[in-house]
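Here is one chain, start to finish.
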Amino acid sequence: MKRLLSIELQKIWKNRASRVLTIAYFVLLTKIALISSIKFDIGPLHFDIAEMGIFNFPYIWHFNTYFASWFKLFLAVIIVSMMANEYSYGTLKQNLIDGMSKKEFILSKFFTVLLFSFISTFFVFIMSLLLGYSFSSFTEFGIVFSDLDYLLAFFTELLGYFSFCLFLGVLIKKSAFALGFLLVWKIVEGICYLLMKWLLFDTWEKAYEILGYFPLQSISNLIADPSRRLSIIKTAGNKAGFDMNYDYSVHMSSIVVVLIWTTIFIILSYKIIKKRDL
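Its structure:
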């Protein structure tokens, strides 16, 4: 594993674009901390983001993992390009000539996906601890380390998303087309959602439940939008007559669905490489 990871990390770091994107990704993650400095007035109303409780334990785990997941496209580009470059530069064929098996080749890519997912999760964990202890009104041990299942959901989300990107990179070869297909697939899932409602089910809820088993939607469902948990949003919603009682918890069934898709993507990637004439 160490040898395979070393090979992949050298390829990524020696590629200028990948190196810049990796650095940009982690720099952007740190920018979540800048949200604490946002203050503004609207007439007589004063808004101080930090005072709204978004950095309170344990809410901060939900908030930070949700917004950190927005930046996963940066690493997705690296993963797709990592695979596309293997074809463009002929390094895949050279690795096989040098004695690496096709199974080891796919494992090296998957280990890289695992490493990116783990480092990102650990980074968000440390950043959340620092922000939480700086701004949270609650710092008791039991409160601080509750709701850590959002970190598990975040790790699973990255793992599933990056595995899908790896599969697209293997399948399509060209990074631009692979990323384009990622967008197309999202649109396809949206169309399937509409068709299920119109042709199969009587309610949007049932169609959405089935949509939750599709790859990208199952990944998106892992962490719910936390903004509606804020007291100011709840108050405004209740006054407007909206039902603000949402389920924000992380469901193990959702994690299992994404892990199944992750396994499918890696197996399919290996099958394609195994059968493809390189």
